[in-house]
Amino acid sequence: xxxFASLLIADRGQDARTLLPLGKAGLDGWLAGQPEGVRALxxxxxxxxxxxxxxxxxxxxxxxxxxxxxxxxxGPWDLAAVCAKLPAGTYRLKEGAPGAxxxxxxxxxxxxxxxxxxxxxxSPRILLTREPAAIDGVVRVAQAVALVRDxxxxxxxxxxxxxxxxxxxxxxxxxxxxxxxxxxxxxxxGYPMIHAVGRAAVRxxxxxxxxxxxxxxxxxxxxxxxxxxxxDSGGLDIKPAAGMLLMKKDMGGAAHALALAGLVxxxxxxxxxxxxxxxxxxxxxxxxxxxxxxxxxxxxxxxxIGNTDAEGRLVLGDAITHAAEDKPALLIDFATxxxxxxxxxxxxxxxxxxxxxxxxxxxxxxxxxxxDPVWRLPLWKxxxxxxxxxxxxxxxxxxxxxxGAITAAVFxxxxxxxxxxxxxxxxxxxxPTAKPGRPKGGEALALRAAWEMLKRRFAG
Length: 460
Prior knowledge:
Blueprint: E1 8-10, E2 17-22, H1 24-32, H2 36-44, E3 54-58, E4 64-69, H3 80-85, E5 89-93, H4 101-107, E6 125-129, H5 135-153, H6 161-175, E7 178-183, H7 185-190, H8 192-198, E8 208-214, E9 221-226, E10 228-232, H9 241-244, H10 252-266, E11 272-282, E12 294-296, E13 302-304, H11 312-325, E14 330-335, H12 339-345, E15 351-354, H13 357-369, E16 375-376, E17 394-395, H14 404-413, E18 422-426, E19 430-431, E20 441-442, H15 447-458
Parallel strand pairs: 1-6, 2-4, 2-5, 5-6, 9-11, 9-14, 10-11, 13-17, 14-18, 15-16
Antiparallel strand pairs: 3-4, 7-8, 8-11, 12-13, 15-18, 19-20
């Protein structure tokens, strides 16, 4: 992984090139005080201080500085496009500290090049900051986002349930966490829906429930659950080829959950952490679970299978049930759960569902504060009727084709005990087109919002 800690360091007067941030509103005033040669240079470069623009300004003895366009939003991506255009070297802003924009500076330099025979050569751009106390926090968040990206971008042949378990074990080892894994007969008996979804791949890619615990048992218990469907063929309700193309990212919820757990442990948050990742491959074989089957969940609920491609909610149901058994103070789950959420909100906005209005408001506010927006959708109780089964307690696939994201969340709510604060993120975990600091591919969406909320709640 990129060594982010070497790219953001305290400003102690080191030699560095100066970056002058300018917004459109301040450009004319700045130009008025510049020599004619500088004005001509800026005009020739067609520099209008738009976000991401850069113009090199010559100095004495071969030195140079740069004027850079800023969005004037004080957001994490304000420096990302500029960073990508600069040569290797050390830089400082002429005035102030980078603040939130330091994150974009770091992430603009992250690369996933595991499968390139000749990776791009390293050209580190180091940023000096006058806020040294903020460095560790920014670096940890950059590492968490990069972890999500790397896990999601990894091809499914190299990111099955066993490899996902290895990723959890690596994070646990770094922070002193404890990992337990349930599979085989114990999984079938204790977590029937997780086993059923993964049993068609049991010989090559055995399903499992991966758990990580950390922290003082006397602290409030925080449960984080992530959907770990390492590849989703759709099962016997097979997806078309176009629908399978991105299904390596169907473990994006697990990647988010693991990254958030790493942030919690890295910051020493005052919680008793319980991370749960049901890791499976939804494959096709003679023993695959079938449409029309009825599964008995860990909770005792009988679930009729209306569609084997609605498998994520099944594995989450058993994991949520287990998480709730330890009576956490808060339960958060992440999942790449429904295409309906993307139809409603597009790729950039994760759908947020919560059974507690104050919790939902805190998350929306936290997301706005760190430029990681989320959008709340309702847990609309009347839509429970869409999940009725003629022979069982509930159907896993809503009828009628409407409100797919909501009916999926309402299904999950069946496994959440009354009174337990719970939030569900239906996130895309993917950037379909590149943006400054965010390449096309795996992406953390709602991770920073959740982390900001947790810091506010539990940092003390």
